[in-house]
Amino acid sequence: MAATTAAPVWSVDPRTGKPREQVAVEATADEVDTAVRGAHAARGALADRTVRAALLRRSAELLDEAGEAVIEAADAETALGPGRLTGELARTTYQLRAFADLAEEGGFLDVLIDHADAGLTPPRPDLRRYKIPLGPVAVYSASNFPLAFSVPGGDTASALAAGCPVVVKAHPDHPATSELCAALLHRAARDVGLPEGVVGLVHGFQAGIDLVRHPLIAAAGFTGSVRGGRALYDAAASRPHPIPFHGELGSLNPVVITEAAAAERAERIGAGLAGSMTLGVGQFCVKPGLVLAPGGETGDRLLTALTDAVSDTEAGVLLDHRMRQAFLDGVRTRAALPGVEAPVTPGAGGEHTVSAGFLAVPAAHLTTEGPYDLLLEECFGPVTVVARYTDEAEIGAVLARLPGNLSATLHLGDAESAGTDDAGRGARLLAEVTPLAGRVVVNGWPTGVAVAPAQHHGGPYPATTSTCTSVGGSAVERWLRPVAYQDTPPALLPPELREDNPLGLPRRVDGRAEGA
User: Fold this and answer.
1) Secondary structure of the chain: what % helix, strand, coil (to 5)?
2) Sign of the torsion formed by the C-alpha atoms of 56, 62, 68 and 70
3) What's the CA gap between 61 and 108, in Å, rounded?
């Protein structure tokens, strides 16, 4: 029988749609198995938190040193532009260094010690609890962030900080960038005395399925579409031994603009909305996709400002031609709905580009189930839907029909923001949108997700499949599980749980912070 030829993996220029170079071949089931077993074998090498920190810092250094080549490769495959990618690389290396600091500090281990107390009812045994790494993690790269949410991105950085090796499934839109970044991470591993298996890389659709089904994979992180993420989530749940699947799937990111806010600053809000919805050619996961704006004269002023700003936006290139066609089909179908207007028509800007625009519709069309439900689904690209409401009841009726989101945004008037308006509208709207999203923005825009300890990038389904964040230090919690030791002889305890605290970890002992 003739041998099966492995499918080639091509790097494609989205500005032309033409292949650039073959960079790899799709991984076979055996090759996925080899990568996963290599990661599994590397678990012990990551046991030392100082070694993990060294790996993360060295990875950041090498990415910075190779910055020009990394940005050039990513731009050639994504058309995101050197300016955007320079910022993304800085974000990526910042994340790596931040997780290095977190690994060294050790607070994420959440060490709790309760000494035995026979005088309690019932008596309490000696209990000592901390968190341990789950094991090898499957990371699925995002199309729209070839660095920060891909091979060297936050999922990889947080998993390594937790002590979990990773196997990354490269995104087909930037395979050459993925190979380059993986090579840099392998070099970083060698430089600090770790096996290259701490970071594996595979290509191909079937490889992604094989990866999540592999019995040695202990958890998975995903950023992408609802359809693709849900398929992998279901595969993770249907394994003989199900595993945690932390997926970011899709988000509409609603915006509510009150009449008071529009009356005070319609032009500024309109310009800001245009900038947010067209940023990165509308390919940010927190792009505002639905805007509830007032009808009447104040709303008209806002739409005029939005029209002017969006009309001045140049056509751009989407990440690939498949996404371009999906965008064109999506806006065409939405614009064809009765009563939907297109003050600035989104569509084809050229043979390989798209032009930004927005659709306007009475909010009353969205308050009940029907054909207008399509307007409540994410359309990836530079378009948003502006729903004009006539009263607050329509705002509430539309919000009540929305699924989970990564973000929700309020633009309030001065008195509403200060809580001095007679109606208490600001506080009421804040309470109304909070159940819908993982991050609530007031008088700003959701695009731009700061990497900070207090950040939460997640939300109710389908925004994410778990309650965890994929941005910020708390992202490490996805790759850990707690274990408690009861009445364990001191000589057998892990160093993290010993009485003398030899590692100097922050701990809570008998309900109080140690040393407080």
Assistant:
1) 45, 20, 35
2) negative
3) 24
Alpha helices (H) along 66-164? 67-78, 82-105, 154-162
What are 496-514's pLDDT values in tens digits? 999 999 999 999 999 999 9
Exposed/middle/buried for residue 10 (C-beta within 10 Å: 0-12, 13-18, 19+): middle
Q: Are strands 111-114 and 127-133 parallel, antiparallel or unpaired?
A: antiparallel
C-alpha–C-alpha distance, residues 476 and 491, integer Å: 29
**Distance from C-alpha of 230 to C-alpha of 221, rounded to nearest angstrom:** 12
- Contact of 208 with 169, CB cutoff 8 Å: yes
Nearest to 223 by CA among 161, 146, 326: 146
Cα pseudo-dihedral 212, 214, 220, 222, rounded to 10: -30
Cα separation, 322 vs 12, in Å, equals 12
Token duo for residue 44: 């012990």
Q: State both tokens at 4.
A: 């099966």
Task: Report the catalytic residues.
Answer: 248, 285
Neighbours of 78 (CB within 10 A): 29
pTM of the model: 0.96
Which amino acid is residue 363, in one-letter code? A
| pLDDT tens-digit series, residues 336-364 | 999 999 999 999 999 999 999 999 999 99
- Phi-psi group of 280: left, alpha or beta (phi > 0 → left; psi -120 to 50 → alpha; rest → beta): left
